[in-house]
Design a protein that fits this description.
CATH topology of the largest domain: Amidase signature (AS) enzymes
Shape: globular
CATH class of the largest domain: Alpha Beta
Number of domains: 2
Structural class: alpha/beta
Distance between the termini: 15 Å
Length: 451
């Protein structure tokens, strides 16, 4: 059964559907693997074997994910557990409930085996802070796993599970996908289940899948959205690349791996590569942070603001107070940047099918000091990651991070973005990259999972 746990999500689903694998044994093996491996990565913060067995017993026959174990980020309530956001306290009372992602997984026959860790309040791209202690990168447990969906990324990379559901507000699925060497899809705004989220009407946050490969993301995306995009060969793919900091102020290893992957993708699809311009791109990360971080402020009152306890990290205590001081003119300007970028992307996607650039400019930094060395100098990871991660959340378009190389033993991710609603195309392109690279990177296994 341990061999089956190491297979991709789609292969696990096929094995259960064909009768090759007993889903009860698969669940037991997954719970045993959590016990065996989770201590090293702190990816899963709570399990509930009896609830998982109830989900398996109730899983409808013939459903696409029947009996397949997954984890869900600590941002979504379950009928037996309230979400906690990786934090000791929240600004509003959270309660158990049937969130949209829970219902989607249940109806697809999946079995939720645990709640996955996340960065405290979802407020960082690194994943280095949580009330549970930080999740750790399976490729080097002293490195950041990426945030804020740190636990989902770490759990999938460690082959604890083959798939997970996270949430992406400012790159929060794609950062851990890149740092941990897996595939992560940020769907089009409004395409996937959001019921039960404390910011259900968010203009930046979406639920989305993380898996070892694109086929696994496709299955989870279908469950979360109800959309069933069939795989299509993206022959003649038109690939756009953007010059500037987002693609050039990156480590040498990241630039080289992403450039090589783009060339391989072009050849695989008999496609073309051309430079495109996105005026205002350098403002998109800032605008996304301003708009995204303001959406939760309606929950904050002066009394709540002044009662934040020291159980919350000092950075988050400072950030929330700072956000309350952001002038309204900044929100207006951020909204204008959003409109400008949406118009620009509409024109750009008339000429190209996808835009490609590095998901993040450098590989996972140390947990103890999340800074990266770039041509522009020594930079805090949170300061530079939104340059490439914020645009999709600002404008609502879909984006995916695909593993394309290594810097030493640390994974490198390439981000692909496409037009509104083109989630299926991104999954097709991700599969094309897998073919072009002979699955060397999606099938790579971190050291702690090799024993």
């Amino acid at each position: 059964m341990s061999d089956l746990l190491d297979r991709p999500l789609a292969a696990q689903a096929a094995a259960v559907a064909s009768g090759e694998a007993d889903p009860v044994e698969l669940l037991d093996a997954t719970l045993a693997r959590i016990e065996q491996r989770n201590g090293a990565v702190n990816a899963v913060v709570e399990t509930f074997p009896e609830r998982s067995r109830e989900m398996l017993d109730a899983a409808p026959a013939g459903t696409p994910l029947r009996g397949v174990p997954v984890v869900i980020k600590d941002e979504w309530p379950l009928p037996w557990r309230a979400q906690r956001f990786g934090a000791a306290e929240t600004f509003s009372e959270m309660a158990p409930g049937e969130s949209g992602p829970y219902r989607a997984l249940r109806d697809a026959g999946a079995v939720i085996v645990g709640v996955a860790n996340m960065h405290e309040w979802g407020s960082s791209s690194t994943g280095n802070a949580s009330v549970y202690g930080p999740a750790r990168n399976p490729w080097d447990t002293e490195r950041c796993p990426g945030g804020s969906s740190s636990g989902p990324g770490s759990a999938v990379a460690a082959r604890i599970v083959a798939g997970a559901v996270g949430a992406d507000g400012i790159g929060s699925i794609r950062y851990p996908a890149s740092y941990c060497g897996i595939t992560g899809l940020k769907p089009t705004l409004g395409r996937t289940a959001m019921q039960g989220h404390h910011l259900e009407g968010s203009s930046t946050i979406v639920s989305g899948p993380l898996s070892t490969d694109a086929a696994g993301c496709r299955l989870l995306y279908t469950a979360l959205s109800g959309d069933r995009p069939p795989p299509v060969s993206p022959q003649g793919l038109r690939i756009g690349i953007v010059r500037g900091p987002v693609s050039e102020d990156c480590s040498d290893a990241v630039r080289a791996a992403c450039d090589k992957a783009i060339e391989a993708l072009r050849d695989e699809c008999s496609g073309t590569v051309r430079e495109v311009e996105l005026p205002g791109l350098e403002l998109s990360g800032f605008a996304t942070i301003v708009l995204g971080s303001s959406e939760g402020l309606a929950l904050v009152s002066p009394s709540k603001l002044n009662s934040i306890s020291e159980r919350i990290g000092v950075v988050n205590r400072a950030l929330v107070k700072y956000r309350m001081l952001v002038p309204g003119t900044a929100l207006v300007r951020a909204g204008r940047i959003r409109a400008m970028m949406r118009r620009g992307l509409s024109a750009t996607f008339a000429d190209v099918d996808v835009i490609a650039w590095p998901t993040v400019p450098a590989v996972a930094p140390p947990l103890s000091e999340p800074v990266v060395e770039l041509p522009s100098g020594r930079r805090n990871a949170d300061a530079v990651n939104p340059r490439g991660g914020g645009l999709a959340n600002l404008t609502g378009i879909p984006a995916i991070s695909v593993p394309v190389g290594f810097d030493g033993e640390l994974p490198i991710g390439l981000q692909l973005q496409s037009a509104w609603g083109a989630d299926g195309l991104l999954l097709d392109v991700a599969e094309a990259i897998e073919r072009a690279t002979e699955r060397r990177f999606v099938d790579a296994v971190p050291p702690l999972a090799r024993a």
